[in-house]
Write a structure and sequence with these properties.
Blueprint lengths: L15 H13 L23 H12 L4 H7 L2 H6 L16 E4 L13 E6 L2 E2 L3
Antiparallel strand pairs: 1-2, 2-3
Length: about 130
C-alpha cells in the first residue's frame, strides 16, 4: 500500500485524500470506475507494476467507498463492458476463462484477492 501511495503528495497539488474523495464522488455519480488503467511501471514511474498493483488498487477502491464486489467488478466486468470485450469480464459459457481461485472471500474482504490458490488462463490451469 505504501508503494502504491508513493506518488501521492509528492507535488504541490498532490492530495491522496482528495483522490479518494474524487473516486467516491465519481462512483456515486454513476461514472464507471475501471481498475488497472494506469499501471505504468514500464515507463519507470514509481508506485505501480502490472499485476501485483491491481490487488492494492482494489483495496484503495474499497477505501474510497466502493463495496468489495464493486471493486472486483471494476477489475473485471466493467472494463470488459466499457471496451466492448464481450468474451471476458464474467463467468459464462463461451467467455474467455481467465480465473483466479483464492482462499477466503474477496466479496467481503478485498485483501483476500492476495490469497491466490490457482490460476487459469484461457481455460487452462497454470503450473504453480
Amino acid at each position: 500500500m505504501d508503494n502504491l501511495c508513493n506518488e501521492f503528495n509528492t507535488f504541490p497539488t498532490g492530495d491522496f485524500d482528495a483522490a479518494l474523495a474524487t473516486v467516491k464522488a465519481l462512483h456515486a455519480a454513476g461514472v464507471p470506475i475501471l481498475a488497472g488503467s494506469d499501471a505504468n511501471y514500464h515507463f519507470g514511474a514509481r508506485g505501480m507494476a502490472h499485476g501485483v498493483s491491481l490487488h492494492g488498487e482494489l483495496r484503495l477502491l474499497v477505501r474510497a467507498g466502493l463495496a468489495p464486489t464493486e471493486a472486483l467488478r471494476a477489475a473485471t466486468s466493467v472494463p470488459a463492458t466499457t471496451f466492448g470485450l464481450d468474451d471476458r469480464g464474467r463467468i459464462t459459457p463461451g467467455a474467455r476463462a481467465d480465473l483466479l481461485l483464492v482462499d477466503g472471500d474477496p466479496t467481503s474482504r478485498i485483501a483476500d484477492t492476495l490469497s491466490i490458490r490457482d490460476v487459469w488462463r484461457s481455460g487452462s490451469r497454470t503450473a504453480r
